[in-house]
Specification:
Layout (H helix, E strand, L loop, with lengths): L5 H13 L10 E6 L2 E7 L1 E2 L6 H4 L3 E2 L2 E2 L2 E2 L1 H11 L8 E6 L3 H10 L3 E6 L5 H9 L3 E4 L11 H17 L4 H14 L3
Parallel strand pairs: 7-8, 8-9
Antiparallel strand pairs: 1-2, 1-7, 3-6, 4-5
Cofactor: Zn(2+)
Keywords: Hydrolase, Metal-binding, Zinc
Protein name: ComE operon protein 2
Length: 187
């Protein structure tokens, strides 16, 4: 197994945090890093002790779930709660931050924002990041980095396709399945 980059490592942490999300509309995770050390993490969910979307449904106002605190804000507030400075840090996040989180990130002193997926990228937020001298970088997350059985899964699927060919399946019948396997494993 090849060692993954720091960016992929911290992005993996974000995706793991996103699994804790309690909002059913979008699972997001964020990790704040300084000097290659994680100083905080957050996911989108309700306030401590509050009703969760997974239990009571989303509370949507103006197209947004107002029941949740976004992952980026949760990570920043965790630092605030415990007196951890975030200046000169990097924020990794699964999805492009919304405008309100972008403004909080800027005000907190984060210097770099790295996101895995585009999500309603706000032009004004991008402009604010640029004006503030914050580097904004899109680095897609490679899920194979945390799938320790991907090679075995691929071998099994290839074996099944070969067996189907041996049993007489035509190439045009197998083509859609082979295409999906190639897409899934990024071959």
């Amino acid at each position: 197994m090849e060692r993954i980059s720091w960016d992929q490592f911290f992005m993996a942490q974000c995706h793991l945090l996103a699994v804790r999300s309690t909002c059913t509309r979008l699972a997001v995770g964020a990790t704040i890093v300084r000097d290659n050390r994680i100083i905080a993490g957050g996911y989108n969910g309700s306030i401590s002790g509050g009703d969760h979307c997974i239990d009571h449904g989303c509370y949507v106002v103006g197209g947004h779930c107002v029941r949740t605190i976004h992952a980026e804000m949760n990570a920043l507030l965790q630092c605030s709660k415990y007196g951890i400075p975030v200046g000169e840090s990097t924020l990794y996040v699964t999805h492009f931050p919304c405008l309100q989180c972008s403004k909080a990130i800027i005000q907190a002193g984060i210097r770099h924002v790295i996101y895995a997926k585009d999500y309603k990228n706000d032009d004004y937020a991008i402009r604010l990041f640029e004006q503030s001298g914050i580097t904004l970088q899109h680095i897609p997350f490679n899920e194979k980095n945390v799938d320790f059985s991907s090679e075995r899964k691929l071998a099994l699927l290839n074996e099944m396709i070969e067996k189907m060919q041996a049993l007489g399946a035509e190439d045009e019948e197998l083509a859609p399945y082979m295409k999906r396997v190639n897409e899934l494993f990024e071959i």
